[in-house]
Amino acid sequence: MIAGFKQIPITIFMLTLVSAAKAQTVKGVVSGKDGQLPGATVQAPVTRQGTATDLNGSFTLNTQATGKVKIIVTYIGHEARTIELDVKKGITDAGIIQLEPAGQMKEVLIKGTMAPSQLKALSIKKNSLAIMDVIAADAIGKLPDRNAAEAVQRVQGVAVARYHGEADAATVRGTPFAWTSILFNGNRLPSANVMGSRNSVLDAVPSEMIQYVQVSKAITPDMEGDAIGGSINFITRTSPAKRQLNVSAAAGYNTFSKDGTYNGSVVYGDRFFKNKLGVMLAAAIWNRQWGTDAFDVSYNTGLSDPGQRKSISTVMLKRYMGKRQTYGANLGLDYTFNAGNKIFIRGLMDKFNDIRPVYESYVDYNNSQYQYNYRYSYYQTVLNGAELGGEHQLGAKIKMDWTVSNYYTKYFLETPPTNSNKGLPISTFRQKITGGFTNLSSDGKRYWGFDSNDGKGGAPLSFDPGIKDAGEKMDPSKLTLQQLVIAQLDTREEDKTAQLNFRFNLSSKIHLKAGAKYRYKDRSGMFGSSIVYLAGASLGIPQSPALLPLSQLERTDFPMRGGFFKGMDGNYDSYAINPLTKQQLFDLLDTATLRKNGFMNVTPKTNPTNIYSGSEAVTAGYAMAEIDASDRFKIVAGVRNEYTTFTLHGTKATTAGTPAATTLSPVTVNNTYNALLPMIHLKYNINQQASLRAAYTRTFVRPNFSDLTPGESVDNTKNPVTITKGNVDLKPTFASNFDLMGEYYFKNIGLLSGGVFYKKIKDVVFSNRINFQQDGQNYTLTQAQNLSDSWLIGAEAGINKRLDFLPGILSGLGVELNYTFINSEVKPTGTYTTTLPNQSKHLFNSILFYERKGVMVRLAGNYRGASVESINQQLGPDFYTYTDRNFTVDASATVNITSSIRAFVELNNLTNEPLKVYMGSRNRIVSNEWYGSRGQAGIRWDIIK
């Protein structure tokens, strides 16, 4: 199959050369007041040949005629322009064709702050071969979306995951996050996701780096095939047609941390050497203080008595109070040798620092004790990469483009304790509760009231620990240091890619495209590995030094910042314990200090099983035809083939009787599989404003690296102890996708769209959870498995409409509404069914905007329904975990002070919407966190435009 694909470009290339002499080529760029115009229509009426401009406003038009030829250029909201060219044999350069706004749209386009950007996005969508939604850079900047994930959350059918108040991952049509292909300039972005998922974490990418976002819901054969949900293609900024320079600066405030934020960016573009060399440079910084209160509950799901599995093991009140820093820079260079040949270079450098001291106060019901943890977390994410490419008109009917790229990402912990080990240092203090509890059920266990046989226990968000002796509170003089841990994390991934594409114009009605791609992925990971020290006295070892009380160590003030757990009923200030200083925590991990205080190294011998490395090579080829069956009906059909070879190196642990008898042995896993992916798209233009689209596509997703590892990781810092185990026998997941969509484009810049979709899915990979108890300790084992076949069905509808028919000042009003309904089913066992992981039944975006005479105000709501996150085949749906429905409200406003200076205000999470995870029932909270609101105000100055 691969060999056949390699012959396709050569065969078509030879056929095309035979007919190339009969055709001529016209190349040029279409531009408007706000730069190049993508999606403009370029036609030669005499020969009835036409084309559309690409994302950079460039076009290639084939014509059989030479001599004087009239070319007509049209674009939504602009006056059509007719030019006459003297077409010669070979390539004729039409230069830059400038269009002017149409009469009735002129004021909207010139004085509007959103209209030009919306116009570009709608034009790209209208002319795309795939079923696609698009947003452009200016639209991203009009809402308070400061990273790439937040930028894409407004798109119809897209859902995002939020981590402590900021979106960090995105998925299309409610499918699992790993089922959405995240692309940068058409290439799969490497992922250093902590859990080994292929879904790229996007919080390291500032939104200022992005020029367009294309969300493809039904892909074409020239796109990456591992995209069951769809693909999200972030296109970085490229050089403009003329010089531009703009800067922005903003400062803000976080209502939770009671501290400031700042944000700044600069974008510069220019052309040199008679417009042959184009340069684009974008840089951004975003520095913000943040905080979160998280109420976490763990349950005794591993108990042998079914009636006690909903009883509470621990309740934790956790506070984060930290700083986040995002830095990004993007460089784009292109050099045009002549009308038929161009090369380009793109570079990207991003860094995200997440510094978060964490303060954890537990009530441990199983062991009748308090526990207090202080950790100093300093997570770092790096994303760097570059690509080199070219576009070449090889003849009148044949065009070639190519790219080679190298992208690298790393996610790691590197806090410097005084010993040689790097990672996340955690100190654990414990205090016995001698008087016992008052709110236990008749079986001696603690439940929430709705789970208790006798109604005892109350409700989670009005938590009463039920300590018998009211004076027996957490006390620094009684909290003794019993455990020190360094949790280790170092995950990195590098993708090296080469791609070659040919486009052949066989006639005015038939266009062929074929190409090949090779990607080599190198990945290594360390997660779940921990260095553990236990105090000898806590183990009952004779003559060990006495346990250190927290009160005798160097401490600092607890970050109250206006209150502690104000999102819950009651007063919890007694759990806000002054923590260690950062340096004291580091000093405790010094080797001499550990020895002095009687700490023993009890690091699990199985730690190496948490470390793996591997590689993956993908060889892909495709061929597709674009056929204009009539003036209104277009067919795009083709096939893609992806052949994957996979090697993973890890360590396997074998235990015979006792942990001391554990032996380690290296193990290597190899696998190969092929994905043949036929696809067909049909598009029928009812008229110039309305069209229907239908598509069948076959797509797939590869198993995650971490799910395939031969080892297992054990996190004994949690209760229950969590064990994550790999599965070397996982198969890829395949899907047959059916889509039907309708689109109607309003004349005043807007869109009405709707459609239905269905996916038949084979070999779904699901994270299965098993609970058990051994030697009085609760354990949770998580392992990925291929489950039975699944299906997903959905419908979506949206409208983007300017209400300019209203009188006077009201004519500036407009709405953007979109809704997606999704349902799915997968059967983990013969008894239970559930939806796909991360799949929400309801997704909804609502934006009310006002835009008139340089004033823009937008109020946006984003809703994501509840979704299952993990299943428990052993215990059933009452023990599945879910992320609850979430609705956030954001707002922004922009005012043109002058023609070049704009003032703006951005507000996030106005309603302080919490993020909630529950088990089985919404009342049975697993986690509930609050992170407040944030906002900023600033200035954008278009120094040169």
UniProtKB/TrEMBL annotation:
<dbReference type="Pfam" id="PF00593">
    <property type="entry name" value="TonB_dep_Rec_b-barrel"/>
</dbReference>
<feature type="domain" description="TonB-dependent receptor plug">
    <location>
        <begin position="127"/>
        <end position="230"/>
    </location>
</feature>
<dbReference type="Pfam" id="PF07715">
    <property type="entry name" value="Plug"/>
</dbReference>
<dbReference type="InterPro" id="IPR036942">
    <property type="entry name" value="Beta-barrel_TonB_sf"/>
</dbReference>
<dbReference type="InterPro" id="IPR008969">
    <property type="entry name" value="CarboxyPept-like_regulatory"/>
</dbReference>
<keyword id="KW-0998">Cell outer membrane</keyword>
<dbReference type="InterPro" id="IPR012910">
    <property type="entry name" value="Plug_dom"/>
</dbReference>
<keyword id="KW-0732">Signal</keyword>
<keyword id="KW-0675">Receptor</keyword>
<dbReference type="InterPro" id="IPR000531">
    <property type="entry name" value="Beta-barrel_TonB"/>
</dbReference>
<dbReference type="GO" id="GO:0009279">
    <property type="term" value="C:cell outer membrane"/>
</dbReference>
<dbReference type="Pfam" id="PF13715">
    <property type="entry name" value="CarbopepD_reg_2"/>
</dbReference>
<feature type="signal peptide">
    <location>
        <begin position="1"/>
        <end position="23"/>
    </location>
</feature>
<keyword id="KW-0798">TonB box</keyword>
<protein>
    <submittedName>
        <fullName>TonB-dependent receptor</fullName>
    </submittedName>
</protein>
<dbReference type="InterPro" id="IPR010104">
    <property type="entry name" value="TonB_rcpt_bac"/>
</dbReference>
<comment type="similarity">
    <text>Belongs to the TonB-dependent receptor family.</text>
</comment>
<feature type="domain" description="TonB-dependent receptor-like beta-barrel">
    <location>
        <begin position="444"/>
        <end position="910"/>
    </location>
</feature>
<keyword id="KW-0472">Membrane</keyword>
<dbReference type="InterPro" id="IPR037066">
    <property type="entry name" value="Plug_dom_sf"/>
</dbReference>
